[in-house]
Amino acid sequence: MIALRNLVKIYSDDDTHTTALQNISFEIEKGEFVSVMGPSGSGKSTLLHILSFLDRPTSGSYTFLGKSISDLSDIELAHIRNKEMGFVFQSFNLLSRSSVYENVEMPLIYSVGLPAGKRAELVHKAIESVGLQEKTWIEAGKLSGGQKQRVAIARALVNDPNVIFADEPTGNLDSKSGAQIMELLDDLHDAGRTIILVTHETYTAEFADRFIRLKDGLVEVDEATNRNASKKEFFK
After folding, report:
1. Contact assessment for residue 97 and residue 173, using Cβ atoms and an 8 Å cutoff
2. What are residue 170's phi and psi, to 5 degrees?
3. In the chain, domain spans
4. Could you read off the pLDDT of 7-22 as tens digits, one per residue?
5. How far is CA 199 from CA 34, 35, 76, 171, 182, in A?
6. pLDDT value at position 226?
7. Strand 16-28's sheet: what is its strand order?
8. Cβ neighbours for 52, distance < 8 A, ≥ 6 positions apart
9. Which stretches of the chain are assigned E, i.e. beta strand?
10. What number is the average pLDDT over the span 134-156?
């Protein structure tokens, strides 16, 4: 699904050049659950931005679903991003005065040719998948933190994306709510979703099948995790 080859990202400001990523190479297969970790300045945010088409590499190649992003315009990338990718953020990024339904519906607004009835069906299905049917018409700002993150996950799912990017999804939650969100992500993975999790928490990172650790813009570790043992510890 995703293939990076010798990926480099350099930020330039007048005479200052900062290398954020250095010769990054790896592949992510469909259905994998991959966690990305690293200290501040390691390059994980830059990597996430490139993977999700919010930025482009300085050199090297990035292929998504067999297409090189260097061959695509920003408009084409935005279209693929809206159709093929779902996003869950630490800060939820919800419209607090809009209902759960309206927040989940947002990615479908730009789906040309989608009948209103089909749109409503997809929204209700996504809300049901995270167990918030009874909150469908409640304003998002009135929900608990865990419920808000569930809305964010429903919004990420509504387009039936190929990959879900979860950026510190438990960072603003208490331990109980965080465990519920990780359980939900685990269920999505078991159902065949590809998930890329960015986190600073080792115990959530090890929840994935695979662990990538960045340091100074380089891949320091790329290995399988002891996922079953981590799950057992996480949910006990």
Report:
1. no
2. -105, 5
3. 30-53+71-235
4. 999 999 888 999 999 9
5. 11, 7, 29, 8, 12
6. 73
7. 16-28, 2-13, 59-64, 67-68
8. 81, 85, 87, 165
9. 2-13, 16-28, 33-37, 59-64, 67-68, 85-89, 163-167, 194-198, 210-215, 218-224
10. 96
pTM score, two decimals? Answer: 0.90
Contact predicate 180/149, CB 8 Å: no
What mean pLDDT do residues 26-39 have? 94
CATH architecture assigned to 30-53+71-235: 3-Layer(aba) Sandwich (3.40)
DSSP at 34: E
Q: Is the dihedral of CA 57, 58, 60, 66 positive or negative?
A: positive
* CA separation for the pair 96, 87 (Å, rounded): 17
Q: Are 4 and 24 in contact (CB under 8 A)?
A: yes
From the number of C-beta atoms within 10 Å of its C-beta (0-12, 13-18, 19+), residue 93 rates as: middle
Both tokens assigned to 37: 């970790």
Tens digit of pLDDT for each residue in 163-215?
999 999 988 888 888 888 998 999 899 989 999 999 888 878 878 999 999 99
